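It is worth pausing here to work through a concrete case rather than discussing structure prediction in the abstract. The textbook approach is simple: state the sequence, then state the predicted structure, then interpret. We follow exactly that order.
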Amino acid sequence: MKFFTAAAAALLSATALAAPTASTDKETTTYQIKDFTTRKYDGKTISTMSFRILATNGGTLDFECSPYDPVVNGATDHFESGKVYFCGENSFFSFSYTDGNDVDQTNELFLWQDIAENNTIGGSAFLDEPICRAGGSTINDLVCQVPDQVYFAVTLEKLGA
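Step two, the predicted structure:
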């Protein structure tokens, strides 16, 4: 997909913990992100993740998103930070999550939505490291989640043009 270039990334807006700003020259769409969860089987590296995309305009959208792997026809258990994933087979949403690791603890979620052919909107949000707890499958297994009380949203706008 052509829009995954560094130039396109510079055009993306960032919104986390803030309401969208009104724009007269660009149409925007804001989605709330809920139940953002990562799983680190080794206690360090994200193995898989998931989150829900919710409408903020009074709509009914409630879309479950996890990194789709076409080889297994389901969610990957070998997540790669910074890689672009579709939210499911034939999904109109795709995303990239860059784990801030332990350097600055700031993580970035890019979200894209295909509206129509040659019409994609996208945006990003930054978030602190999710809170981790024991996962249970091994001594190192961690499940990390953004708390429910944290308002986490991404504002998307038309890319290119």
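Step three, interpretation. Helices lie at 6-11. Residues 6-22+40-122+139-158 form a domain with the AOC barrel-like fold (CATH 2.40.350).
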